[in-house]
């Protein structure tokens, strides 16, 4: 370790200490930024006395990372991880230079890091990961990253820095059969449909990545879980979904608040709705098994602490049962709508759209989300708002929701919630709209602390 | 019970449908249903035959580069019929990649040359070309406002493309750029109007945010099929979404 690196590390540590212990503010991005500034190669000098697992993909990174962390801790591993949102190189550097491993039980400690797709190569070139976990790749914020194949190429360029690393990938996503790397590949996916119930399907028209890599024909599916995920095959040659090492063999119960399902022979429950979240649990299960953690231990890791599923947070606003969900791209929004299909109570939906950098500056994605499907849920009232309230208002009007309460200003949000006619209220918001919403709810005393 | 039907072909709707292009069909249906017209949409993709007589409106959206090269190959088998549709005053809206493929050729981001069907006098180079004087090596991404060259209407949208398109001297652009970049960032042209073909780089999508154009395209399509009805007057009664 050179002098520069030592200074960089010390600076990062003391700024973290200042922020965290004196100012009581979380955050690893600033210490990371300072460290990278003093020594751009600092990641390369970090003592590699731990194994690194990189979790990447479009949707589900944060929850998957949190679940893997819990599972490994249940298996008595000493684990460090990055806070949600700190998934770029600075945040990761900050996490690594400020964290300490504590246990000394003979097992190598593990760093489980959520890594932004475009930052995988930066991380992997400095520290050789032991494992990559690939959740899915969907169209997302194209104004920033380009196309799904470009995104995947970026991930693959990172994988190539660690040719011995295991690649645990979602086998239901056809894109993960691509890529010219030699690493061992382990696939997880769904096998909950019996062969006699197979259909011959094609993916919905608004999904990407539906061409067979062998002959460029449009893929057929025996079944689809959502978007372009499912059991696919080419109708012209032998290309088909690879063999699954870990599979969801039955989906036992889907509700907006929890899901019950079986992976291989273990029945499991997670305290969060949405079929897509079962994929996150499945990948964490697969990682746990690869580290020889017993299925029963994984089960108790999932079921012992519901706090981990904090993303879909329920808030009580004067007797209204309010659930906030983040929306950011068409597939994510469709899965949220699918979750609303499992809601047994009548509910109201407020959709808040912003188009700042963190939301994605292009709002055209709202037309690829199937708001029309909401007609088959128990929805009774619709409200729209946010800085781009007009876009979302017209989207829902053209989806057949003529009567809408429209809120141009989020200052009225508490009144807006109170005015909803049902006890159950969903608020779907883009990232910065969600921050503004939380600020309002926090100022009015409905949530503690805010962001 | 509506007695009129608008048959829409969504050309490669499963492969060329990024950035909400499908919203254009949602907008047309929204206005059509209010004047008792039923909209039927058929995706015409790889291996399907396109028969011009079956359709009153064609949407050809944009796609990712990879899908676009596959589509370009398949399009050869549909080129003659598509050309026939266009020269018989069929109504067509082509966005981004679809717009590019109606021209003679295009150079993809990686330098690969892909042939279009040559129905319109236009061609596309990539952002790295030495001719590019504005935002070389960068995508043209952001909000855009143009003024329609025929009607003077102002349209709002979002553009997101790396290709730079140039239309021939005899062709008319859809609009003149007020703010944003348009076809190439250099000549103030956005899109094209050629008979009843409308080409554009607008996502947004264009017909959801610009109700005047949606109504015009709808009236043009329906007038071809049901010439005895004054569709423009019927549509004039409806409120126009424009933002
Ligand atoms: Zn485009």
UniProtKB/TrEMBL annotation, chain A:
<dbReference type="GO" id="GO:0008360">
    <property type="term" value="P:regulation of cell shape"/>
</dbReference>
<dbReference type="Pfam" id="PF08353">
    <property type="entry name" value="MurT_C"/>
</dbReference>
<keyword id="KW-0133">Cell shape</keyword>
<keyword id="KW-0573">Peptidoglycan synthesis</keyword>
<dbReference type="GO" id="GO:0140282">
    <property type="term" value="F:carbon-nitrogen ligase activity on lipid II"/>
</dbReference>
<comment type="subunit">
    <text>Forms a heterodimer with GatD.</text>
</comment>
<dbReference type="InterPro" id="IPR043703">
    <property type="entry name" value="Lipid_II_synth_MurT"/>
</dbReference>
<dbReference type="GO" id="GO:0016881">
    <property type="term" value="F:acid-amino acid ligase activity"/>
</dbReference>
<feature type="domain" description="Lipid II isoglutaminyl synthase (glutamine-hydrolyzing) subunit MurT C-terminal">
    <location>
        <begin position="326"/>
        <end position="434"/>
    </location>
</feature>
<dbReference type="GO" id="GO:0005524">
    <property type="term" value="F:ATP binding"/>
</dbReference>
<dbReference type="GO" id="GO:0071555">
    <property type="term" value="P:cell wall organization"/>
</dbReference>
<dbReference type="InterPro" id="IPR036565">
    <property type="entry name" value="Mur-like_cat_sf"/>
</dbReference>
<keyword id="KW-0479">Metal-binding</keyword>
<comment type="pathway">
    <text>Cell wall biogenesis; peptidoglycan biosynthesis.</text>
</comment>
<keyword id="KW-0436">Ligase</keyword>
<dbReference type="Pfam" id="PF08245">
    <property type="entry name" value="Mur_ligase_M"/>
</dbReference>
<dbReference type="GO" id="GO:0046872">
    <property type="term" value="F:metal ion binding"/>
</dbReference>
<dbReference type="InterPro" id="IPR013221">
    <property type="entry name" value="Mur_ligase_cen"/>
</dbReference>
<feature type="domain" description="Mur ligase central">
    <location>
        <begin position="55"/>
        <end position="152"/>
    </location>
</feature>
<protein>
    <recommendedName>
        <fullName>Lipid II isoglutaminyl synthase (glutamine-hydrolyzing) subunit MurT</fullName>
        <ecNumber>6.3.5.13</ecNumber>
    </recommendedName>
</protein>
<keyword id="KW-0547">Nucleotide-binding</keyword>
<dbReference type="GO" id="GO:0009252">
    <property type="term" value="P:peptidoglycan biosynthetic process"/>
</dbReference>
TrEMBL record, chain B:
<feature type="active site" description="Nucleophile">
    <location>
        <position position="96"/>
    </location>
</feature>
<dbReference type="GO" id="GO:0009236">
    <property type="term" value="P:cobalamin biosynthetic process"/>
</dbReference>
<dbReference type="InterPro" id="IPR011698">
    <property type="entry name" value="GATase_3"/>
</dbReference>
<comment type="pathway">
    <text>Cell wall biogenesis; peptidoglycan biosynthesis.</text>
</comment>
<dbReference type="InterPro" id="IPR029062">
    <property type="entry name" value="Class_I_gatase-like"/>
</dbReference>
<feature type="binding site">
    <location>
        <position position="139"/>
    </location>
    <ligand>
        <name>substrate</name>
    </ligand>
</feature>
<feature type="domain" description="CobB/CobQ-like glutamine amidotransferase">
    <location>
        <begin position="7"/>
        <end position="210"/>
    </location>
</feature>
<comment type="subunit">
    <text>Forms a heterodimer with MurT.</text>
</comment>
<dbReference type="Pfam" id="PF07685">
    <property type="entry name" value="GATase_3"/>
</dbReference>
<dbReference type="GO" id="GO:0140282">
    <property type="term" value="F:carbon-nitrogen ligase activity on lipid II"/>
</dbReference>
<dbReference type="InterPro" id="IPR033949">
    <property type="entry name" value="CobQ_GATase1"/>
</dbReference>
<protein>
    <recommendedName>
        <fullName>Lipid II isoglutaminyl synthase (glutamine-hydrolyzing) subunit GatD</fullName>
        <ecNumber>6.3.5.13</ecNumber>
        <ecNumber>3.5.1.2</ecNumber>
    </recommendedName>
</protein>
<feature type="active site">
    <location>
        <position position="203"/>
    </location>
</feature>
<keyword id="KW-0436">Ligase</keyword>
<keyword id="KW-0961">Cell wall biogenesis/degradation</keyword>
<dbReference type="GO" id="GO:0009252">
    <property type="term" value="P:peptidoglycan biosynthetic process"/>
</dbReference>
<dbReference type="GO" id="GO:0004359">
    <property type="term" value="F:glutaminase activity"/>
</dbReference>
<keyword id="KW-0573">Peptidoglycan synthesis</keyword>
<dbReference type="GO" id="GO:0008360">
    <property type="term" value="P:regulation of cell shape"/>
</dbReference>
<comment type="function">
    <text>The lipid II isoglutaminyl synthase complex catalyzes the formation of alpha-D-isoglutamine in the cell wall lipid II stem peptide. The GatD subunit catalyzes the hydrolysis of glutamine to glutamate and ammonia. The resulting ammonia molecule is channeled to the active site of MurT.</text>
</comment>
<keyword id="KW-0315">Glutamine amidotransferase</keyword>
<dbReference type="InterPro" id="IPR043702">
    <property type="entry name" value="Lipid_II_synth_GatD"/>
</dbReference>
